[in-house]
Amino acid sequence: MHLAGKKISGLVPEIRAFLSNDFGRAAQKYFLAGGASALIEWALFALAFYSLGLHHLVSGVLSFLLAVGVNYWLSVTYVFGAGKRDRNQRIFLLYLVSAIGLGFNLAILEVGISVLELNAMVSKIGATGLVFVWNFLARYFFIFQK
């Protein structure tokens, strides 16, 4: 028991160091911005799929694209700042990275619903969670470089 406590307490300085460096601070902020964008995406997906009766892939595309716009605004305003790229270049790269993320998102959604026979919202939430990591890393290292 004492050894386990010693190992955990030894990690505390490393965790503090991670959370206080630029990457760690950006990750914390992106978790909040990405979380807000995800909630919007899920609500739009549910509206399109359940209320409007659109196909799950159409609902996935529409909700993802609208959430990308919200995420861009939050990323520039609260997470990364403008970075060194001009606005048009950032927007182009954001939609390029997002198109790749959308491909991942739709593939995971399709497998979840059609292959694994999961509930549509469960599949959508799982897809969003997995694509979240891609989105943060691509934005941090590629789009909003400092």
Topology:
Layout (H helix, E strand, L loop, with lengths): L1 H19 L1 H30 L4 H24 L7 H29 L4 H24 L3
Helix pairs in contact: 1-2, 2-3, 2-5, 3-4, 4-5
Give a brief description:
The chain is mainly alpha-helical.
Strand content: under 5%
What is the CA–CA distance across the termini? 44 Å
The proportion of residues forming helix, as a percent range, comes to over 70%
Radius of gyration over all CA atoms, rounded? 18 Å
Largest sheet: none
* pLDDT < 50 runs, ≥5 residues: none
Oligomeric state: single chain
Number of β-strand runs:
0
Describe the structure.
By secondary structure, this protein is mostly helical. The protein has one domain (29-143). Helix 1 (2-20) packs across helix 2 and helix 3 (56-79) runs antiparallel to helix 4 (87-115). Helices cover 86% and strands 0% of the residues.
Which properties best describe this structure?
mainly alpha, 5 helices, 146 residues
